[in-house]
Amino acid sequence: MPKPIWAIAPILCLAAGSALAEVSRRDAIEAQTASALASADYAQRHCPSLRIGWQRIEQNLKSIKGTIEGLRRTESYEEQIAALQSVEKQQGRAMVCMVLPSAHGGYGRGVILR
User: Fold this and answer.
1) Are 112 and 48 in contact (CB under 8 A)?
2) Where are the alpha helices (DSSP H) in the chain?
3) Residue 85: phi, psi to the nearest 5?
4) pLDDT given at position 21
5) Beta-carbon neighbour count of residue 63 at 10 Å?
6) Helix crossing, 54-64 with 5-46: angle to 10°?
7) Radius of gyration of the chain (CA)
8) Where are the domains of the chain?
9) CB 61 within 8 A of CB 15
10) Bridge partner residues of 51 (DSSP)
11) Average pLDDT taken over every residue of the chain
12) Per-residue pLDDT for 6 more than 90?
């Protein structure tokens, strides 16, 4: 005799929930790493006293099976570039370089180092 739908619904919800959690985790890693990469690209061009933690970027990319080129095509990367340009225009390049090492948390932590 087949099980009633209410008996298997919790199982389906759990399966869908874990799939959504994995997508959300992947999206978070991608967005935060793309943002930190935009800051790293800025730092490489304009902040000689800062170092880039490429190993952290590579670690994140490996976990999402992504590429640096792919990150540079994301909305998160573009938004961070625009934000950096805005802060530079208002506060100056020195201010941007000063705050970059502490600007990223989560999956972006450890990308820009003093």
Assistant:
1) no
2) 5-46, 54-64, 68-72, 75-91, 93-99
3) -65, -40
4) 58
5) 14
6) 150
7) 19
8) 5-113
9) no
10) 113
11) 86
12) no
Spatial CB neighbours of 36, under 8 Å, sequence gap ≥ 6: 56, 57, 104, 107, 108, 111, 112
Examine the pLDDT at 57 and tell me if it is beyond 70: yes
Handedness of CA 83, 86, 87, 88 (dihedral sign): positive
What's the token pair of residue 66? 């992504």
Mapping DSSP to helix (H, G, I), strand (E, B) and coil, where does residue 111 land? coil
Q: What percent of the chain has pLDDT over 70?
A: 80
Q: d(Cα 95, Cα 89) in Å, to the nearest integer?
A: 10
Q: What is the pLDDT of residues 9-54, one digit of tens each?
A: 444 444 444 444 566 999 999 999 999 999 999 999 999 999 999 9
The pair of structure tokens assigned to 88 is 């530079």
Are 71 and 61 spatial neighbours (Cβ–Cβ below 8 Å)? yes
